[in-house]
Amino acid sequence: MPDSNLTSPPRATEKVETAARRPSQADGAARSEALWAILTDDQVERDRFCQAWLGLQCGLLPNTSHGLLVFRRGDGTTTVAATWPEKQPPQAELARLADRAFIAKRAVIAWGRRRPSPAQPQSVDLLIAHPFGETDRPAGAVAVALTVPGGIDSADPDAIARRLRWGTGWVESLQWRQRGDAMSGTLGRAAVGLDLLAVVSEHRRLKRAAMAAVNELATRLRCDRVSLGLVRRGGVELKAMSHAASFQNRSQLVDAIESAMEECLFQAAPVAFPPIADTERRISAAHRDLAAASGARSVVASVVLPGPGGRPIGAITLERQGEEAFEPETLKLAETVASLVGPIIHLQNETNGWVGGRIVEYLKEGTQALLGKQRPSLKLAAIAVAAAALFLVFATGEYRVTARSVLEGEVQRAAVAPFDGYINTAPVRPGDQVHAGDLLASLDDKDLVLERARSRAEREKLADKYRDALAKHDRPAMIMTSAQLQQADSQLALADYKLARARVVAPIDGIIVAGDLSQMLGSPIEKGKVLYELAPLADYRLVVQVDERDMRYVEVGQSGALALAGMPMSRVPFVVTRITPISTTEDGRNYFRVEGRLTEKVDLRLRPGMEGVAKIDAGSHSLVWIWTHSVIEWLRLTAWKWLP
Fold this sequence. Notes:
6-stranded antiparallel β-barrel, 13 helices
């Protein structure tokens, strides 16, 4: 609808004489038919279409003096598409009214009074602008200036605005048709690119993939030669040439192709020789030299081969024999193919490269990322890593040798079998606390009692015999009987001693750490067999199994801490008291026995045989050395082993 708020008061405008330029009715009909023919032509250019449409629109509106059709660009500026009468500059008032229609996003009307004339004393100028396209974002506007003979009251601006709105459907259809053509071209290029991508993806090796790409491009684009090169050491190295299984790297033709590719990569845009409208402002000296080297009638063009993230990784050069330059559509198709194939070529190039080359490439990418203007998070992370590394180099900490350990009693006593016999009772078991003199086990003493009785009877018999000899004063008999009597006393004393030893008692106060005879009652035992092992509860020593690689850091007098498996939250301090020079082998490793003494009051919960992890303080070192010295020493030993 018209915007009455934007109506300006009547004002004087220049009188435009159009009567002299108006054709006769026959000429007007022929001209209308010609204009309609232009509108219905699907291949007509946009400028001719817009001029024909504006001519018809102004011809259908009575008393039209001027017309203007403008389009709006993406940046908000406008461009004139057509004026009426044709080839005349647009009126400033109509251009301003079109801008107001863009802002208002609806029809805008303005009035202007003509100078009085005897023929039409009340005539006024009516200016109407109407936008078209999307409601929120108009694509253009049409503005016309009409002469109203009867004055403001005789005009119908709404009807004229509606006719303009209906007529803009032709212009909108042109825009949609152009968008469809552009979309069709884009889809066609995408289809070709996908076909080429499928061809390249069939090959795992870079050389084969590049050869397949250039051969397919040469066929699709009707080129005599297509070349593909990749960035190498600041320049470009030719990797594939269509319809050529091999080529000489340092030949004049290869140098010319690589120079053309470098020229394209330097400008980061397509380059063609002879230049076309899209490339006429770009340098094409190397392409001109390549065309001269290829033949007098050669045309050359190059496009950038982008990799991941759009970073240029190479270029594709097209060559064709003929005097006509490459079409813009051909270059667009080559760019589309390059954008699709580039990441695959880059991936294959990285996969097939040497390890050293890939490491150098990764270092280069990392350096560029660190020193570039982007990726601030990576820079902050690098600064944090550098600060942490400096801290680890200069900060020091206490190095501690870690090893497995076990608690033992300071003094261990054994209760052994005094003679061969049979177990009668065994009231204690490992873990029981006993006092000195407590019964540990008893042996069967029936044989000992009988032996003692026999020895006593024998002694009594010899004593009687000795008394008889004494009464008879038989000195020889007395001497012999006295010796026999002493022997009998010894046997009786031995029987009493064995009978007393049949009770195995605890030699000290402590705890049973080994020996369980509860399941062996009545079993025979040999003389000297260890029945029980006892350890005192108050005195312990710590045995640490130190790996041979850490022995050079351990000395007598060093302190440490012990964490037992049964009490992992408690730390028991100790001091190293002895280092034995004898190693033991366990799990394929050599360990040395290091003994320590607990320096604090012993917890009643400690028991001999408890295992844990001990850490011995071995001096102050840098944190980097503490964490890496074992690996460095292993590497040194391995190098010494394998190096000549």
